[in-house]
Amino acid sequence: MNIVSLFSGAGGLDLGLKQAGHNIVWANDIDADAVATYKANVCHNIICADIAVIATNTIPDCDVVVGGFPCQGFSMANLKRNADDSRNTLYKYFLKIVSDKHPLYFIAENVKGILSLDNGKTIQRIIADFKTAGYDVEIHKVNMADYGVPQHRERVIIIGQRNDLSPSKHLKFPQPTHTKDSWVSIKTAIGDLPPAGDTSTDPNNTGSNYKVTIRNFTAHRATDPDKPSPTILARGNGKGGVCAIPHYNGLRRLTIRESAVIQTFPRDFIFIGKMGSCYRQIGNAVPVLFGKMLGEKLAEIEKQ
Known about the structure:
Rossmann fold; seven-stranded mixed sheet; 8 helices; 26% helix
């Protein structure tokens, strides 16, 4: 299928869709480093521009619109989150493009905090808006560890299917492939990587020297080698320093490469930008593996 990608970031979701055989015909992001990373690894069909000023008639027609509209305002880690946060209205640009291009499907990804914001009124408004645009809407709360990603990462996936589609053309959401007893551990995922600082075989294998102090908060929790990684985080506004997860040895933070492997990026995927930017690109991404699973479900429709 032909896919338009909004808020593309470094391209985790898009790379997974591409691996499943789909075509990214147009993409955009406002972050120059993320766009450079995308061009170096995914494809060149991306522009660096503010979605607020992009005319929808300049965007190609497509079968699917995808995107993780910025989630920092919705995030449970944002202690000041509220319904009036300007970042929470960016989904309206996603909505406008879906309404104007009228693709067969749309797929949107966000943090689980979107479900509880303003006592659930925010997600209900989003659902109502897309229904008005002509789509049947499904909300799926998932833990990426249930899909083979070596990370405890709870996210909300919003699926839209144009309401004139026949049942045979409905997108079937991927079923979990793992249970708690078979989750992939962080040690299994990154245990064979070279030592931190060694970039001879794995690019971006450097990282933060920020001291590890174990506290029960965000990036300061202990990492258990025999469990999936804690959620790989991002500071969406690029401020406040690096937010890297402690390595399971307890002595240092994860490198950029280790974080990327946990997000199931290929080991030869190169991130462009300063250290903080690279960490942020990874933390904002959809795991590539899960993107591929969504792409495979889209491909099943094509085969019918």
